[in-house]
What we know:
204 residues; mainly beta; Pnp Oxidase, Chain A; seven-stranded antiparallel beta sheet; three-stranded antiparallel beta sheet; globular; binds flavin mononucleotide
Amino acid sequence: xxxxxxxxxxxxxxxxxKSLVVPRPIxxxxxxxxxxxxxxxxxxxxNAVATEPAVVMFCPGGGRPPDPRKDSRRNAExxxxxxxxxxxxxxxxxxxxxxxxxxxxxxxxxxAGLEALPSRLVKPxxxxxxxxxxECVYLQTVELPFVDPDKPNAIVLxxxxxxxxxxxxxxxxxxxxxxxxxxxxxxxxxYTVVDNVFTMERPK
Length: 204
Ligand SMILES: Cc1cc2nc3c(=O)[nH]c(=O)nc-3n(C[C@H](O)[C@H](O)[C@H](O)COP(=O)(O)O)c2cc1C
């Protein structure tokens, strides 16, 4: 089959697009508003995009009136900082709770019964219990095409300035996927856990 994603003429009961580029890691983004309210939300349009220096991105769609930006984007742009918390199997329910569309004055970390840990180099707190955290300084926003001007799409880029790793997920100096077990997003309402690893050497 072939279809035009702009017309969505796939003829399937549900849009298949998000099921094709999978699995997508989940960036659980903590930020602070200008007033100091903690915000926490998951983004699966998220990835690491460079190593030297380390850069990550997350891609918010449209928020709610009066500001068409999602809170995570607005906070990163206004305060210049965000933290990526890595979601594991054990924290999946709490991650899901923090995707609720709540007003900006609601602290989603508290809402999901999560404890905050201070960061070292940036002000937004980290999620206690997440096995890895990336402290980030906002770099820039790249505006993407949109269908509805009230729902802008964007890439928010940040430089990673500090990395926390729970020592318990390190075995013999390597990140141990059996202990890490990060969760990733598939299409629809489906998820997966990284629990199947194979190794291939690069050609010389
Ligand atoms: C697993 C998961 C992944 C998500 N990924 C995205 C995403 O990549 N982009 C997006 O705009 N919303 C995404 N959402 C929805 C946001 O988390 C949700 O809109 C949230 O309320 C945004 O919060 P904020 O306004 O506090 O930034 C995702 C939700 C879940 C559960």
